Amino acid sequence: MELPADHVFAWMEGISAGREQKDILRIEKAAHFAIAAHEGQVRTSGEAYVNHTFAVAAIVHELGLDTDVVIAALLHDSVEDTPVTLEQIAVEFGNDVSHLVDGVTKMEVIQEFADHQGGKSQQDAKAESLRKMMLAMVDDVRVVLIKLCDRLHNMRTLGAVNIDKQKRVATETLEIFSPLANRLGVWQVKWELEDLAFRYIEPDIYKSIANKLAERRVTRQQFIDEFIADLQTGLTDQGVKAEIKGRVKHIYSIWNKMQKKDLEFEQLFDVRAVRVLVDSVQDCYAALGIIHTNWKYIAGEFDDYIATPKENNYRSIHTAVIGPNGKVVEVQIRTHEIN
Ligand code: MN
Predict the structure, then answer these.
(1) What's the mean pLDDT in 68-95?
(2) Helix or strand or coil: residue 304?
(3) Per-residue pLDDT averaged across 20-45, rounded?
(4) By C-alpha distance, which of 211, 229, 271, 215 is closest to 247?
(5) In 164-316, where do the E strands start and end?
(6) What is the pLDDT of residue 120?
(7) Which domains does the chain have, with CATH numbers?
(8) From the candidates 47, 81, 96, 303, which is the catalytic residue?
(9) 80 classed as catalytic
């Protein structure tokens, strides 16, 4: 068992990027505060409990959130699980941090209350009202972001708990937390939560999809690289500046699509996906025109979420074209602002 205290230095290096010296010092103080608060506590895996709060703060940092949120993430379990009080946190780190920690603690309470009310699985309506309640009671969206990072780390380390708990936590993740991530537009978190949850809920299906994806990775990558090169040339010729990336299809979204469209694995494995990032909405439509001129598009696969954004403010154009060798390529076009 390695104590995080030994790793504070390395951890601090990672988290300091792009921050001012005074912020770095505050984070360092909070790191030592968290270590002292959680001293002697261990997780089910046997490692020091405080490793969890360090990991959550690192995820918060990766999302590009401000220093108070990173500090609140370090302290997010301290009021609930240790003798530390909100007043102490306010004195040491300011009211903003104590307010955030308070919000995360309250979300925890609502969730536990709901767990006791519900059976094994929340019904849809109930999950929906729980999500609404959580959003309504926190007046600061950063609280929900910390909670999502907390859940993400718990999902990443879910292998350490027993199977019953794995299923329960994974189900709750799909019913409550990935929809919250979707609602807030934190796609990276949403996808990872979904894939991790799916892995515990349907382990056999998850493994079979993951294996088949891995088998075809090399040929798929070559195909995508060539498609991207052609598309880049086409866009540059027309004066559209774009960044094009191959896009990993997420296992849960593949599964969902199979269910929704009643397709076989094989039909979906061959779907390749790229994302085109441009500077302006006008360029989105220019790029779309160029893509549809160069490759035949599939009528039923076109969605314009720029003209008609989704409720969660998702703005992107989706299309699918018949690429080289008759293979379908899904294309998403959006501005750099939307990640
Ligand atoms: Mn936690």
Answers:
(1) 96
(2) strand
(3) 95
(4) 271
(5) 242-246, 272-278, 296-297, 303-304
(6) 47
(7) 5-201 (1.10.3210.10), 213-335 (3.30.460.10)
(8) 81
(9) yes
